[in-house]
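#struct-help
A.M.: can someone run this one for me? Single chain, 396 residues.
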Amino acid sequence: MKKTFTILVLLSAICGLSSITYSQSTWTQKANFGGSGRYGAVGFSVDTKGYIGTGLDASAYKKDMWEYDPSQDTWTQKADFPGAARRHTVAFTIGTKAYVGLGYDGTDTTYYKDFWEYDPSSGLWSQITDFPGTARFGAVAFSIGTKGYVGTGKDSASMTKDFYEWDQGSNTWTQKANFPGAARTRAVGFSVDTTGFIGLGYSSTYYKDFYEYNPSSDTWLQKTDFGGTARKSAVAFSIGIKGYAGTGNDGADKKDFWEYDPSLNSWTQMADFGGVVRHCASAFAIGTKGYIGTGIGSSYKNDFWEYDPTIVSINELSSKEIKISVYPNPSSGKFTLSSEIISGKIVIYNVMGEIIFQSTIVNQQSTIDLSSKPKGIYFVKIYDSEKIYSEKVVIQ
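D.P.: on it. Structure tokens below:
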């Protein structure tokens, strides 16, 4: 017998509201960060684990490194970062390795340009070639394929806008086209598929402009400005085909949180960050979840929060009930996706947040064949011009 699963239901009790607040159910507080409360720490993820380390707490610059296991909701201290204690470093991940470097230790002359590789499987650090630009802090970094990208930030003399590519295979840096916006520090950066993005930040003013980097042509393209206020010291990460940015400081600490859709070049406000307002927090993504913790507001923070974009906020619900059906579910890999949406796109992710299928909606029923994919749980999303609708499908 066919089973139909309705995933979004608009409660009649809220239909008459002229203003609907965001649901906080998208954020879940997890175990506090294992180290001391701090700001300017670095965050990154490798496979199914996340990491936060370095930064400045109430008493000293730090070099400790901690691993987060979301399956157990636990923190474990790992080998210290081998460079000097510091804050406002950057990190990117390529394959099973992470790369951490740059930063500042609070003196006007001690800016860093060293870079280090971390191998979680062995727990060992090894130094790679120094960053070729000036020593600096508050830069941004992201990775695309086997390349890492680092740029902007503040050195001992001024704000910067130069931009560099690191090749994992040759352990070499190459200068690329400068970031096209104003020189700045404490911007945010992330990558989606084969392009990177940098925006926000601060020099003599706060910024909200936003740019896309194409590594194949070494070119930049200005995109729609960030949806919130201009600010510095926000955090960002990507999940699947979307980017996310929030928190930070625009003269006051913030907790608003925004989703960027590169295919639509648009920002959508999501549920506010679950903790209190702050800036200089740490963030990373694992699979289909994002994580934000630490930072500074009225005090040094060590709380830690999980963000799930598949839980739809009240603001995202349609003015009428929208039904999505996946059947059979579980399936052998072949199933029918049925919805009331007649225009949009279908994107399916695995549990690591990787896109394994995408298609344009051509009618209200689509037959999908994932029988060549491994058994397990997959996330089906339907995107129309304004909203996202989600369902899980099990292949067995």
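A.M.: thanks! The two ends are 18 Å apart (CA to CA).
D.P.: also worth noting: The first strand starts at residue 27 and ends at 30.
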